[in-house]
C-alpha cells in the first residue's frame, strides 16, 4: 500500500509569504533553516573557473573525499578513510541511502519527537516504522540513553541529531557515549544526522564515530558551509557497508553535482570565513532569547546550536498552523508550525529560524512584541 506523507507545512507558509511579498509587503523569512550568509567566496570563485574549463560529466571527487576525511581528523580527532564517504545531493538523499541500504520494510526506527519532519516521512516512504519517543523540555527535547534502554522491543535503529532541528539542542558528550553503549548492548544501529555540526554556541558537537565506529553519519554542505542550494552532502558508512551503500547510490542517485563538488572542496579553504558566521547567529540568538519573556514565550530549551528557537504557544492556541498563518498575515513574519516536527504536541509549538540577518532579527522583535501582547490567552 502506498504511504501517505504529510506535507511540510512550513512550505505552505513560505508560499503565502512570497505571495504577500509580491503584493509589496515586507516579509522576514524565519520559516526555514537556510543560512543568510551565502557560499564562501572561495567556493564561488572555483565554480566560476570550473564552469569555463570542464565538461561536467558524472563524477565523484576523490580529493573532496580525502579532504572530508582530513576534516574529521582535524575537527573530531577521529580517523576515517576517504573511501567511507559516499557523496550525495545533500543530507536528505544520504538519509535515504543509509536507511534503504541497511534496513528493510517493516523495520522499526526510533527517533525523538519533536524531530526533523523528513525522518518520519522518509521512513514512511520506505515502508519502515517510525518509533517516536516523546522528549520534553526537561530533557532538552533530546533522546537519552535511558529512553533508548526502555523501548520494547529494541528498535532496529535510532536516528539521533545533535544539534537538533527544531530545537537546536545538543546531546552532551557523556550522554552521547551512554547512548552508544546502550545501542551497542541492545543491537540498535545508530544513524547520526550531524548536519548542524560547526554551529554550536556552548560546546562543539562531537561525532558519534568517537563512540561508535559502526554508526552511519549523514551530513552536508547546507548549514555550516552555507551552501544549501548547491545540493552536496555525504553518507559516512562503516567500511564493510560502503560497497552496498555505493551500489544503492549509483542506482538511486548516480553522483552529486560536479560543479558543487569542485566548489565544496574549495570551501575548505574558507574555514575561517565559515567559522565567523557563527558570530552572526550567536548575536541573533542572544537578541531573540532576550526578547522571548516579553513575548510571553517562556517554555523553551535554549538552543545549544543550529539556528532555531522552538517555543510553546500552548497558552495562546492549540492550532500552530493557523497561528503561524495569522502571525504572517498580521506581521509579515514567516515561521514554522510545531506540527511539522511533532504530530502529537506540535499544535502547541512554533519554530523560529534565526538564520536571517541580525537587522532582520531586530526588526522581527520590533514587530513581534506588540503582536504577542495583543494575543488573547486561550483559557
Ligand atoms: C536535521 C536536518 N537534517 C537534514 C536536513 C536536510 O538537509 P540537506 O538535504 O539540505 O542537506 C535538514 C534540512 O533542514 C535538517 O534540518
> Helix proportion of residues, in percent?
40-55%
Average of the residue pLDDT scores: 95
| Major sheet summary line | 7 strands, mixed
For this entry, what is the oligomeric state of its chains? single chain
End-to-end separation in angstroms reads 42 Å
Question: Which segments are poorly predicted (pLDDT under 50) over 5 or more consecutive residues?
Answer: none
Report the C-alpha radius of gyration, rounded: 21 Å
Shape: globular
**How much strand?**
5-15%
Number of helices: 12
| Widest β-sheet, arrangement of strands | 2-8-7-6-5-3-4
Strand tally:
12
Q: Which ions, cofactors or small ligands are bound in this entry?
A: pyridoxal-5'-phosphate
Amino acid at each position: 500500500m502506498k504511504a501517505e506523507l504529510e506535507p511540510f507545512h512550513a512550505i505552505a507558509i513560505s508560499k503565502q509569504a512570497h505571495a504577500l511579498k509580491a503584493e509589496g509587503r515586507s516579509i522576514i523569512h524565519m520559516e526555514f533553516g537556510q543560512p543568510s550568509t551565502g557560499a564562501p567566496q572561495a567556493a564561488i570563485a572555483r565554480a566560476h573557473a570550473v564552469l569555463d574549463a570542464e565538461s561536467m560529466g558524472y563524477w565523484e571527487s576523490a580529493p573532496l573525499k580525502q579532504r572530508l576525511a582530513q576534516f574529521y581528523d582535524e575537527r573530531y580527532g577521529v580517523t576515517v578513510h576517504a573511501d567511507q564517504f559516499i557523496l550525495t545531493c545533500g543530507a536528505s538523499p544520504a538519509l535515504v541511502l543509509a536507511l534503504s541500504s541497511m534496513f528493510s520494510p517493516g523495520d522499526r526506527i526510533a527517533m525523538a519527537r519533536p524531530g526533523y519532519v523528513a525522518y518520519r516521512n522518509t521512513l514512511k516512504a520506505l515502508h519502515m516504522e517510525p518509533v517516536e519517543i516523546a522528549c520534553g523540555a526537561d530533557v532538552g527535547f533530546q533522546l537519552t540513553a535511558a529512553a533508548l534502554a526502555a523501548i520494547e522491543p529494541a528498535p532496529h535503529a535510532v536516528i539521533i541529531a545533535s544539534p537538533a532541528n527544531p530545537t537546536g539542542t545538543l546531546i552532551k558528550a557523556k550522554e552521547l557515549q551512554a547512548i552508544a553503549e546502550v545501542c551497542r548492548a541492545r543491537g540498535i544501529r545508530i544513524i547520526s544526522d550531524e548536519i548542524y555540526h560547526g554551529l554550536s554556541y556552548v560546546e562543539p558537537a562531537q561525532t558519534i564515530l568517537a563512540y561508535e565506529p559502526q554508526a552511519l553519519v549523514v551530513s552536508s554542505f547546507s548549514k555550516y558551509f552555507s551552501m544549501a542550494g548547491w545540493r552536496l552532502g555525504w553518507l559516512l558508512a562503516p567500511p564493510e557497508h560502503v560497497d552496498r551503500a555505493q551500489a544503492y547510490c549509483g542506482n538511486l542517485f548516480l553522483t552529486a553535482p560536479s560543479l558543487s563538488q569542485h566548489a565544496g572542496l574549495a570551501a575548505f579553504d574558507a574555514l575561517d570565513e565559515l567559522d565567523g558566521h557563527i558570530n552572526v547567529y550567536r548575536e541573533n540568538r542572544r537578541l531573540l532569547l532576550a526578547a522571548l519573556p516579553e513575548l510571553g514565550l517562556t517554555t523553551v530549551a535554549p538552543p545549544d546550536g543550529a539556528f532555531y528557537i522552538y517555543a510553546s504557544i500552548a497558552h495562546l492556541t492549540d492550532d500552530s498552523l493557523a497561528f503561524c498563518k495569522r502571525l504572517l498575515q498580521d506581521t509579515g513574519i514567516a515561521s514554522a508550525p510545531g506540527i511539522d516536527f511533532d504530530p502529537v504536541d506540535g499544535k502547541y509549538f512554533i519554530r523560529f529560524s534565526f538564520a536571517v540577518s541580525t537587522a532582520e532579527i531586530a526588526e522581527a522583535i520590533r514587530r513581534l512584541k506588540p503582536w504577542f501582547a495583543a494575543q488573547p490567552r486561550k483559557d
